[in-house]
Amino acid sequence: MEKDPDGVHQIPKPIKGLFLDQERKVVDWAVFDRNLHKIKHSGVTIDTGYDLGQHSEYDVRNAARAYIREKGALPAGMNLEDLIGRLRPFFARGPGKALEGRAAMEALVAKPEFALSDQEAEFLRDTHIFRDAPTVAGQYQEKQRNGVGNFYQLPAEVQTTIIDWTWAFGTKDDSDHTRAFWQHVYRGEWAQLRRELESNTLDVGPNRAYQSVDYVRRRRALGALLGKALDRGWPENGGAC
């Protein structure tokens, strides 16, 4: 995989870019358990995992503005306030209670104008990488025990696997659904992490009971991506080739 000018790698699975797919499944089914009971705080999801119900308008706007200051301008034809305005009903915190679960799904079915363009979804992805990659790099450098202290010296596929994980789960490394992933990363247990991602046996805590096929597919894709580095000679444990 090629680095972009900032030394950060693209998320491997292309962002779908639309809340509405052809079957009009507008909220990722991870927001429901098997009995379709709404899970608290789950809401409208961009691609697989970027849950607007877990993000505030303040955080998203500030990340976007920082990205724009660094890059010089918004992508051509985009309007930040228009984008924020369409997302506003679905943020975790704001002027009113965010729409979640079935209420969010029904709102999107009724108003397809809430859908994002590919360009807008990719912009949100890029602001996420711009904001979180330095946090991930610092966190990794502080806690790694695998012999590679600089995050950006990891193979491209390994960097991407880690950054992609934060797209859905954030940078927190000590919750029930993130602890196992980060322990493998810090210890350099790359072969074990690959196996658990590809087989969907990685411990993600209570999330396992209600994650959709899209989450499983993405997790397996990350395992395959990590496998490319291993197949090219990156060690199964540690980090010294």
TrEMBL record:
Pfam families for the chain: Pesticin
Record-annotated Pesticin C-terminal domain positions: 38-190
Domain of life, per lineage: Bacteria
Classification via InterPro entries: Lysozyme_dom_sf (IPR023347), Pesticin_C (IPR031922)
GO biological process entries: defense response to bacterium; killing of cells of another organism
GO molecular function, one term: lysozyme activity
Keyword field: Antimicrobial, Bacteriolytic enzyme
Protein name: Calcium-binding protein
